[in-house]
Amino acid sequence: MSFPDRWDDGTDPSTPAHQVHWYDDRTAIVRQALHTNFEGPFVYLLLGDTRALLLDTGTGHADLAALVHDLLAARGASELDLVVAHTHGHSDHVGGDGGFESVVGRSAEAVAEYFGFEYWPHNSSTIDLGQRIVDVVPIPGHQGADIALYDRNTRLLFTGDSLYPGRLYVMDWPAFRASVARLGEFVAAGNPVEWVLGAHIELTDVPGKDYEMGADKHPGEHVLQLRPAVLTELVQVVAAAGEQPVRIDRDDFIVYPV
Predict the structure, then answer these.
(1) Helix/strand/coil for 110
(2) Stated pTM of the model
(3) Which of 80, 173, 201, 211 could make an S-S bridge to 215, C-beta 3.0–4.6 Å?
(4) pLDDT tens sequence across 46-57
């Protein structure tokens, strides 16, 4: 289980449209190249025995569908049922949907129906990929249909745009505060996290220093993976901030109400 020494930082426009890294033999981390779109989103492919789960489809400026099918074929997994879902419904995470035959809807109602949430956003659910259970936790506040996913096999927690090394844009402050607390409670309830993996990198390797908005070159990036202590920190600072939206600058994230 590993991460690459560095991700494609946009400084070389000749690089492929996607950088692929296999965290283990059943978990692929894919970054869409910054030269295709400044968002440079990360997507994740999880393989089970009977199903594969793709989290997000990028901006649509690169052919993710062809890549995913090639990755499945290379792992002898072409026959797996492919579930395509989103950490949330913003355009830079759903832009490649058209390349796939079936995709989970982008609204909170569609997400709740697919994953079987009876009391969205107050209860969690699971999806069984075959000898690989993934917990799904609703965390609205950034877009409204936001979810975090916890892979019990690897103890990876996928948090989309709700926690990553960058600007955490908060659209609904009360919902975000409640969601962050809920996610912290989920982890504390016996779901230990090895790493937190979000959907972007927007910070440099200088603590708390971000790139300019829209920057398509990221020399000297912060690492993608965050220790679980960073989630604990987010829970604490958002709770302490109170009921009024406020910007919070930390070494590994910036809470950014909009």
Answers:
(1) helix
(2) 0.97
(3) 211
(4) 999 999 999 999
